[in-house]
Predict the 3D structure of the following.
Amino acid sequence: MAKIDFYGGVDEIGGNKVLVEEKNDSLFLDFGMSFKTANQYFSEFLQPRSGNGILDFVEFGLLPDIKGIYREDYLRHSGLTCQEEPSVDGVLISHAHMDHSAYVHHLRRDIPLYLTKESYLIMKALQDTTSTSFNELVKLKESFFLKPKIVVRDGYSPYTKVKGEESEVNRDINIIEPYKQYNLGNISIKSAPVDHSLPGACAFLLETDDEAIVYTGDLRFHGRNSKMTEKFVKESSQFQPTKMLCEGTRMNTNNNISEESIEEKATHIVDGYNDHVIVNYPIRDLDRFLTFYKVAQNTDRTMVVNMKEAYLLNLFTEGGYYSNLDLAVYLPRRSWGLMGDEACVCLEGEWVTCSDLHPQHMEDGYKKWEKRFLDLENAVTYKDIRENPKEYLFSCDFFEFKELIDVKPEKGLYIWSKTEPFNDEMEIDFQKAQNWINHFNLEMITEGMHGSGHANKTEILDMIRKINPEKVYPMHTEKKEEFEILKNDGIEIDFPELSQ
Ligand SMILES: [Zn+2]
Ligand SMILES: [Zn+2]
């Protein structure tokens, strides 16, 4: 019998980390971050120290205290030993949301990761375009490495830190094909694509000598790709699972809002409107992107995305997922503010406008990955949006609100196409968003503008009945008791407990 230990995803939505062991073989299902626990101890200005390796995370149970899974540089720097071989045979990533994948950063590089191509692209974009401390998802940058200096001056250390590209090592990435079998020792695995609020989500079907285990990851039936989830249900029922690890994010509701209905409603609102239309949606939700891309097309506007999203869309376009997207890319002003004609700099005692400088100075303050967007024909700045508000559908997230100071909207719509706040921190941010929106005389539109990435209660119960496992472990839920009704169908319900 396979042993299953839950190191996250118990009585909370997210933080999934499940260890499955069969004789001498073992694997993790996801290795995500628990927002709930992280928020209990940490905040924006109180963060775990990268110099203390994994220990700040282990202290609060954010990372399980397990030997043989963490990166050598972190262990050794904290005075811990590192065993020769990894203690697990692989980590299966169901999708690239942080609550399922963020702590891959801490894993040793020789642990094979199994993930879909889309998940890989999203994780790559995340690593390439964010500068946060713990984002080494697809490439590991070895910390605390020194090398001899080429030129040594008297009195200085003859060593220098290994940094940048020189410190990078690839992780053991295995891109998985749908329904293809892979073997991790005695455990065979198959991925089943499912629909969720970002591309590349999958469930997993695991098989050992005497068990068939289904892990749903996160899924829904009301998205653009619901057929994938339906196929998963069909395949899983033929699989005759002994155990099913099932998400239950929305066991408290039977509502659903589809992407099509958001598109229709937003088109209706935007059509014929003559001023700014600004939208805020989760940028890695490319189905939602598509919804607003279509709204823009339906209403003769051009969709404007930020550079991070443009970077991700480029990766997906190169991967063959899109062709000929008709978009504009927003260039924000950076530290020197050189994107505006009015900006001046002092040149040998004379104040000159930036347009008098060598064009190369326009690039000052932009990161390497951003520079490719600066010369694009379809790049726009605050000026374009300010001067032609009805030409654009401008995607502007909370953390980009500063752009509104430059755009100076006097009137317009602000479409909030995101989940409504469900905890104190989100409530505070939402209130701040409301203040900005009021300040710029924008009208906030939320009603019917967000659909969840998760199946509702009826759909989850129906799914389980169709798959008909012997036993269900409700996880990724705060409503586990809603599963108990399945006992009437002869299905055993086992509430997982958090392992330490
Ligand atoms: Zn999740
Ligand atoms: Zn998710």
Q: What stands out?
A: The chain has a mean pLDDT of 94. Residues 186 and 192 are 20 Å apart (CA to CA). The first strand starts at residue 3 and ends at 6.
